[in-house]
Amino acid sequence: ACSAFSQTSCDECLKNVSCLWCYTNNTCIDYPVRSILPPSSLCSLSNARWGLCWINFEALIIAMAVVAGLILVFITVCCCYCCYCRRRSRSRLDEEEEHLARKREERRLQSLQRKHERKLKHDEIRKKYGLLQDSDNPYSRFENE
Q1: Cα–Cα distance, 101 to 86 (Å, whole number)
Q2: Distance, C-alpha 11 to centroid of its chain
Q3: How far apart are CA 141 and CA 66, in angstroms?
Q4: Which residues are 30's β-sheet partners?
Q5: pLDDT attached to residue 43
Q6: What's the DSSP call for residue 2?
Q7: How far apart are CA 71 and CA 81, in angstroms?
Q8: Is CB count within 10 Å lower at the N or C end of the chain?
Q9: What is the pLDDT of residues 21-51, one digit of tens each?
Q10: Is the per-residue pLDDT at 142 higher than 60?
């Protein structure tokens, strides 16, 4: 079917998706579907057109390689950046957790210190009014004076 469009024009040939136009001898041939690229014995890549008349296979291959390379570089950069951010956020979380633990321990120590100071103050008041029990004999009877 494609050979019927030979010696016409590239646009007429490429209206059929299964056709390949070769500028070397202005022929329309069936696209070799068994191979991805047309062999050079059929038509050189710089003179072969498929899909659009204004772009040849060499330019198409180069453009596709550049786009694929850019996509790979973009994916690699994104993966590296995400891994770096995760590692950085983990270390930041660890630092924050350690800071909170230190603060918690400081508050606990301050609380114990205040408790001890209150106990001393209460003991002084009990001693002043004679309410402090003798530490030698905690079971002694309380006597009124």
Answers
A1: 22
A2: 46
A3: 99
A4: 19
A5: 86
A6: G
A7: 15
A8: C
A9: 888 888 888 888 888 888 888 888 888 888 8
A10: no
